């Protein structure tokens, strides 16, 4: 079940609501004495709406990640250097620079890449090959 803030068009699931309350990011006591939260009505409208822009989505963790673009929060810290990241995926990708791991190999030459997207770009630019 999702819940909507009465004061803003923002939806969150119950675990998101609980974590926001625990982090004191949501005030459950409005001036009218209501909770400030109403259950999502199940419509086809996207459930989660950003408080700061017109972004919306149907998955809570997508909204959590999006909200970091506004808050600047980077909760994923590299254990090898001072860099911090918005997503765990970005940290894992960055960490490969410390290990030297390049798991994506070109089948036409000796090029190797940390990310699959970089291999795709290489194949297209250097070999005129497009892959899905």
From TrEMBL:
Superkingdom to which the source organism belongs: Eukaryota
Keyword Zinc-finger (UniProt): yes
Every C2H2-type domain range: 48-75, 76-103
GO terms under cellular component: nucleus
Keywords, ordered alphabetically: Metal-binding, Nucleus, Repeat, Zinc, Zinc-finger
UniProt keyword Lyase present: no
SUPFAM superfamilies: beta-beta-alpha zinc fingers
Localization terms from the record: Nucleus
Coiled coil location: none
InterPro entries per record: Snail/Krueppel_Znf, Znf_C2H2_sf, Znf_C2H2_type
PROSITE patterns in UniProt: ZINC_FINGER_C2H2_1, ZINC_FINGER_C2H2_2
SMART domains noted in UniProt: ZnF_C2H2
One GO MF term attached to the UniProt entry: zinc ion binding
Family in the record: Belongs to the snail C2H2-type zinc-finger protein family.
UniProt name for this protein: C2H2-type domain-containing protein
